[in-house]
């Protein structure tokens, strides 16, 4: 009997706090990762973005490893502890790799040995991916294990609270770590404080581990049931082989292709595999949702850089977790019960389909915003065009004639310039409010706000410093960004509503439809859909793009609509199951008590081993 509070097992308190700290650690580190690549390791935008997405994809692939270790070998509890240690070591390694003083022998503020920092940070990231991904399917499933059969309502609430903790951790860390990075620190020279920005997530990971261990006396710990993954693979392999052996039409068909394993494998195992395969099949279209969802961090962020609104940018990076924190309770307490009251069956798979449609609408909204932005952007020459800028320093208007076959974008400034012996220089700067031109004792000062995204040319006559500053002509080559970032809020709202419907439900669905001994495996399968989604983003980013960004957004939206239609058809044919009930039924059919069942499985395994040994002996004899 587990200790309870308000109908909930007390042990889940440690699990949700652990999740909060772990997600703080993960998202905090992620919030400054691209900046570290870009401004510390001095990688270009493309390399920084690719390594970032590759890292995220790895974080969602390693859950398979964690699930195998947990379900077949160590059990969830030990797997979480061991992999959290790996994770914490990774975070510490990452934080150390950002200390520029380690290799800054000449004390100029930049590291002298980039190879050292790159190698150390890559090692850190691999350990983090192994840790975060490895524990991910185990923590949610371990939380679920704490509930008993009569607590199914509380179990659903647990998954929502779990998701809230994820987002509270993500929100706080996304706000805090960039601020920590902006501090200055260092031994020899003061630089942006990456060690602090990565160090705090490392500390949070250690706290997460300590909290988890603190609850160890209260957890329900289910033992791993032998090498389940290996048994599953062998059973599937046997079914395929046996089916192939009996492919002739003279053999009667079986209800399910897995039934071809009946000759050798236990009925219960076959029934469990059927349940898992049914769900995994349903997962096939799901990566498309994540393909759109994960572009929040790349394409949408880039879209924001072409928009105006200084402080909104901070809000935009946190809008997703803020909306999650508000939408999850609203959906759980208001919308879903209301729909139920109206007599509508809003089943989990229907919710997920609607979630996908919301994500598609978010991309339509992004496309509309992009069209607005494009109207304000200057015309750049395409690969088949050239751009000619004519600065007319003559006092009267000049006519320019172009051969009609040539595609030239013409910009001319009717300005006067006294000398032709001038030097051009381009300066790109952020937050320019004051700008002075100084020559000896004389200077001309321009004190005003220059808009983001704008480009200006200052035409300076040779007489300016002996004459007056008025004769300097300012030309605005490119207008400042004028479409406000607040226009992105609808797309964030839509995608987050989609996330609540899709992701929170998917998490619950994966847990509820999995047999007891394969819960982590199915959680890992669920997380894998995210990894594949990220890989698709990587491929799409690497392969050519459509000439217009808005068209790309619409393409993604249409693809997701198509995928959601396919998913809804698949979902229509899916029958929800209670794995425990099916298992009990199979046991009953076999006339076995649970203990006997286990004994039989063991005997089966032993027989298998004996057969193998016998074959080995035969082969040696031959
Ligand atoms: C911060 C995101 N809104 C979020 O909730 N993410 C979840 C789901 C996921 O991306 O895997 C998480 O970090 O577990």
TrEMBL record:
Residues 588-622 are annotated as: Disordered. One of its GO terms (biological process) is protein transport. Keywords: Membrane, Peptide transport, Protein transport, Symport, Transmembrane, Transmembrane helix, Transport. It is found in: Membrane. The keyword Membrane applies. GO terms for cellular component: apical plasma membrane. It holds the Pfam family PTR2. It is a multi-pass membrane protein. Its main location: membrane. Residues 599-615 have a biased composition (Basic and acidic residues). GO terms for molecular function: symporter activity. The chain crosses the membrane at residues 54-74, 80-102, 114-135, 155-181, 193-215, 275-293, 313-331, 352-371, 489-509, 521-541, 553-577. CDD domains: MFS_SLC15A1. Belongs to the major facilitator superfamily. Proton-dependent oligopeptide transporter (POT/PTR) (TC 2.A.17) family. This is Solute carrier family 15 member 1a.
